[in-house]
Amino acid sequence: LSQTKPLASVLKDVCDAWSLPNAERYALQYADGRQTYITESNRRDIKNGSILRLTTSPDQEAERLYVGIQSKNVDVKTDSLKKLASLSQDVTFAQEFISRNGLKQIYSIVEEGKDAGEMLAHTLKAFTELMEHDFVSWENLSTVFIKKIVSYVNMNAVDASIQQLSLSILENMVPTSHLLFEVVKKEVTLDRLLTHLQATNAQLQLKAMALLIALLLSATDAERRDMMDYLREKNIRQFIHKNIIHSSEPLGDEMAHYLYVLQSVSLNLCEHRMKMSMDPYSQEQRDLLQSLRQTAFELENEVPAGTFSTERRRSLCAKEFRKLGFMNNSNPAEDFRRAPPGLLALDNMVYFSRNTPNAYSRFVLENSSREDKHECPFARSSIQLTLILCEILHIGEPCSETAQAFYPMFFGQDHFFEELFCICIQLVNKTWKEMRATQEDFDKVMQVVREQITRTLSLKPTSLELFKTRVNALNYSEILKLRQTERLHQEETLAVPVLELREKLKPELLELIRQQRLLHLCEGTLFRKISSRRRQDKLWYCRLSPNHKVLHYGDVEEGVQSPPIESLTEKIPVADMKMLLVGKECPHTKEKSSGKQNKDVLELAFSIVHDVEEYCLNFIAPTRYEFCLWTDGLNVLLGKEMTSERTQTDLDVLLSMELKLRLLDLENISIPDHPPPIPKPPSNLNFCYDFSHAEQ
Based on the domain organization, do 41 and 66 belong to the same domain? Predict the structure, then answer.
């Protein structure tokens, strides 16, 4: 194929060679993989070695299928719809078909509702693919069409594949406009979605979860709160914990992401209270505050109301609020003026006092009766702890588009945030006593508590009980040991001779990291295609050939773990690679809108520029770890330095292990900063033993 000749001339030559008239009725398309049509705009993407075939042109094919799907013959109609579903992935064909008003025919097939089974599944698949190209707005859909799609989701006696496609269509529809969101929310009840979630079919379960998440993300704050309350009533948390997280099947990336979003949306319901300062004139809030005092000191308060004057009562209240650990004991409402954590701290304190009254009373009375300046202030600690928990759990931050990091224990517990607070506030008291802290040490104690919580959460405990056991085991002395080990390790490695040894070892260990990166590229990785509208289900795989000469890639189906290299039809010779782009420099991130939501995509995006024409192969890594390994590996192939943060951590780990092994014999021996002085040479060198005389 000559890239300099216009495509029309190329087609004419091919048709003439085969004596085919009307060259304009033909087109070229790839013979393998996604059989995309070749056009003037995408012809530069053709790789050397790609096999093309002569086929009917997109406009002819669109015309033929447009007529075929209106046929009275069932077989012709079914075949036409099947072919349409497959060809609609191609943008050139989709344009031709839509320009013939083809979508109107698809609408009428669905709206009339005469066809079912396989024929309907092909129709819905074709519709989904055509809408994917964004030529037509979702808002153009008729009410009848939407109601029909909704009916497939709401009816029981419908094939699972049709229900999956219908759920997928509704999921795409919801984020496009608030009007469509309202329609879907009204027509597809949460009860119905919960029924699908409980299906044994994993794909149906996944699509139902996708629609549920799309509805939650598109809802207003008030609607979201109502929806979450309803889901809580219906025990969705227990169901997810038992049947999805602890099911026999491993959790897929897509489901892990949806669970992360559900956790994030649920925790963000606290944001409203977190950002609200206390109103000293609100009777409800003042009652909550007084309840803390009454619960703690109720026995002491069993005195008839008329006994004290107002002045005496006020001073008694102030004294009790001071015992509770408020900074401003005459007007404790002032302590809740800082937002965050705002009223969320008060809610947590009230929850702790009502749900674990014994632990609450013990905390307060134990500290209020101490006179040695070692009392732990309950109120001040609670306010600071609430702020720490909000920061650790990212409350008030928008959901990431790709994250999958959820806490399994979140779904194992009602009132997760409050229960976590109850465990951690008792941890504060325990750590305070272990540190024998005074008021001046408050910030130090809270720093240790933050470390205890983050270190324990990083172990991903599966239940709050397990979290409690582990966080209590990680006492102050353990934290000190960990810190000391880290500090000693730092000091040890900062001695001058050790630093010189580090520098000597670096090249060898960097080579080891390079080999590991290339091996990882040879194993390959599954990448996900993300459109501007939503997380897509389309996957592709990329891997390096064992001789490190060619990058192979191609589309794969869900569930394929490690496709053989022969099945990946596309390839890029390493010699043709020009450079690596990351983050904002990538062409596929420039097209996207810049918002908070896309920050995580920017951190995972990279592109390879290759060939003379400077084509780009665009990637979005599944995790930051994969991003680091791939960008390092590609830099190695390009003969450049490895620049990711992972390289530095890997190098530090390897250097530290190697240095520890080398310094084993020097334990308890202090290493001098300077080598010992070399003595001067002797005045004469006549002290050599002469063996020749001895032999005689």
Answer: no
Q: Clarify whether residues 436 and 571 are in a common domain.
A: no
Number of residues that make up the chain = 696
Contact 408, 247 (CB under 8 A): no
The 10s digit of each residue's pLDDT in 611-666 is 766 678 889 888 889 999 999 999 999 999 998 999 999 998 998 888 888 877 77
Q: Tell me if 180 is assigned to some domain.
A: no
pLDDT tens for 132-150 read 888 888 888 888 888 888 8
329 and 449 fall within a common domain? yes
Under 8 Å between Cβ of 553 and 570 = yes
The total domain count for the chain is 4
Task: Supply the range of the domain harboring residue 576.
Answer: 507-650
In a domain, 347, yes or no: yes
Cβ within 8 Å of residue 184, ≥6 positions away:
146, 150, 170, 173, 174, 211, 215
Please report, to the nearest 10 degrees, the dihedral formed by the alpha carbons of residues 274, 276, 280, 282 taken in order: -100
Query: Dihedral angle at the C-alpha atoms of 204, 210, 211, 213, nearest 10 degrees?
Result: 140
Q: Is pLDDT of 60 > 60?
A: yes
Residue with tokens 């504060």: 428
**DSSP code of residue 638:** T
548 in a structural domain: yes
